[in-house]
Structure formats: C-alpha cells, structure tokens
Structure prediction request, 427 residues.
Amino acid sequence: MRIVYILPGVGDTFYCQNCIKNMDLINELKKKGHDVLFVPMYLPSIEEESLKIRPPVFFGAISVYLREKLPFLRKLPLFLTSWMDARWLLKLISKRTGATNPVGLEEMTLSVLKGEEGGHSLELERLIKWLKEDIKPDVVQLSTVLLIGIATKIKKELGVPVFSVVQDEDIWIDKMPSPYPEKCWEVIRKGSEKIDALISASSYYAGFAKNRAGISEEKIHILPTGIDMSRYRKHTPATKTPCIGFLSRMSDIMGLDILIESYIRLKSEKGLESLRLKVYGGIAPQDRKFVNSLREKLENAGVSDFVELETELRSGFEEQFFDGLSVLCVPVPQGEAFGIFLLEAMASGIPVVQPEKGGYPEIIKETGGGITYKDNTPEGLAKVLKSLLLNHDRLIELSNNGFNSVTEKYSIEKTSDELLSVYSKYR
Prediction:
C-alpha cells in the first residue's frame, strides 16, 4: 500500500514530538512492506533528511506568507515565484524565525484551512497534480486538521481514503483574537465531514475536538502514540545523587520556568542538597531571551553549577539524557493531547511527574509510571517532587510499572497495526 503523509515541516532547532512519532511510524510501516512518503508543507521536514527523500515542498512558508500579504502574487505563474520555495532559503528562515506563534498569521491560517476556497488555490492544484500523476497514493494522511481544506480537495480529486490527525490544534488556533478561532473551528467542523476519519492520540483530545469544533464522535478513532522501544535502555532511577529531567522545547509554553523556580526551592530542602537538574530539548529562535533569563535566575540563586541546560539538539540523545535521572517533569501549563516524552522516559525506566492537564492523566493512569498533581505552581510542584524524590521505594515501583506498561501497550508495532486496521475499514 502506498501511503502519503502530508505534514508541516519544522526547523531542527527544538525537540519535536511529532517528528519522533512520524519517524517511528514510517519506519515501522516500511518494515511491514508499505511504501510511505512524507510530503512537507511550509518548510522542509526533518524526516525527509533522515530518509533521503526529496519531494517538493508545497505551500512554501515564504510564498504562502507573501501571497497573503501581496495578493497580486497569487495570479503570477509558478515559474516566476518558484525561487521562494528553494530548500536552502526555507531552511535558513526556519532557523531564524519562529513558527510557534499565530499572531499576525490569522488570515494565512484561515486561507490555507479553506483549501480551494482560500487564497492559495494554484498551489493546491500543483499538489493535486503531483499526487495524481506522479505518486498515485492508496491512502493520504494529514498530520493535523489545520490542513483540512487540502484534505477535502484531495478526497474529491483522487478518490482515495483521506485521514487526519487531530492533536493540539487549539494551542495555535485559540491564541488568535476573535473572530478567528470561531471561524477556524467552523471550517474544521465542515471539513471533517468530507474526509473519511480523524485520528486522536487520546480520549481527552477526542472529547475536546467533539466539544470545541462540533466534530462527530463517530468520525474520531482513538489511537495512542507508540515509540520504537529499541532506542531505549531501562535505567534505575538515581537516588544517591537525585536528578530531575526536563525533555521538551525550552519554553514557557512547556512550563520550564515553573520547573526552574521549583528546583531552586527544592535545593534548600533537607536531603535534597545534592539535587541536580538536566534540561534538554533545544529552543525556537524566540525562546533565547527566555532561556537567558532562566540562566541568570539560576546564577543568582547560586545553583547554576548543579544544572545542565543544553540548547543544541543531537541524534541518539536518549541514552545519555536518561542515564542518571530520578524523575522527568515537563509542567506544561495548558497540557497537551498526549506527550511522547512521557513514553520516552518510562521506556528508559524513569518515572514521570506531570500536571493534571490534557491527556497526561490518561497516560499515567494507563501505565502506572508516574504521578499527577493539581497545583501547577512552583510551590505545588516542589511539594510533589520532594515527596517522590525522598521515597526511593516508590521511585523503583513507578519505574518498573512504567517500563512494563510502555513495552506492552505503547510499542510502535502495536500503533502501526492499529493504524493499518483503521485504514482497512475505508478501502
């Protein structure tokens, strides 16, 4: 079966949960004998670099932005504007600009969401022509419903099953000023009726999509994310020299400031004088000022020598990062649909401590590999972390629970089998 995945590309400057999920999934589907191709939108994808795949970049970030700001460009033939989609240029801007804030991009987001009714119909026709003539897919999968307008046109023109992941779109949409969120969710609701099915990583986000966007419950399949267990080795949580880990983009969006302030408090607690903190995950360009302020805060508190803040990404980080950790904590204020870093920690034998937000309680309840807490303040988090870090028997219990559950329930083999089962229902 030939499967095409269409996904927004991202710069390679910070830890990308979707990139990990996509790479694990494509590799497993290929092992099962399927022909899988990633098709990037906006920016070249990290996945294509690893797989040495070079499909065209559709809806290039520069051309989409300029066409939205300068509508006359929409009427120019593609050969006059193709220079804007040069890979070297797109990679350059991905490292210098952030694609994590929708302010100023409201009209562009809505225009792309509308598909053939938006302002980028020529580019959509180029994508359709390429898929129809060169690729001829059996199944098309989108990584987010923010691309739902493209999905409906593909479904109509190619006549193949079309699916979309629904996951954390609210983090982008609901930052926009009114009336854009209302307009975007309405377009998503209408678009979801025209494709075959949506796939959610958690019951939490399936319920959110149903309530927020009015998406039919029958349209959504719940399919938890899986990981490639071969990348991980089980560690024993550190107790002699305790260490808290943070694995995600180093941003206030992911709650790093909450964890830093909590850590400073914990350093003065009896029995935790040697406590260390290891932070990894890289940064988006707009995070540099924030991270520098945290470095200054740690320096002023006199604890910077006990803290590792690594802003550069590296391949194969798993072994070195998880070795020596006692717990992992990413105190995201808003929560997320899933949180693949939880699986990565538990697959490495490291318990997790997460706020009672989003899909986190669902994962932790299913695995028994960590604890959740309600008061997501530095004071509240410090209290929870202190209790767990000083309870060595509990750390070992959670470590074993998490490792065994992830191995059994969240392997990429299981996820890919369930995904193929969903596909088969619509072919």
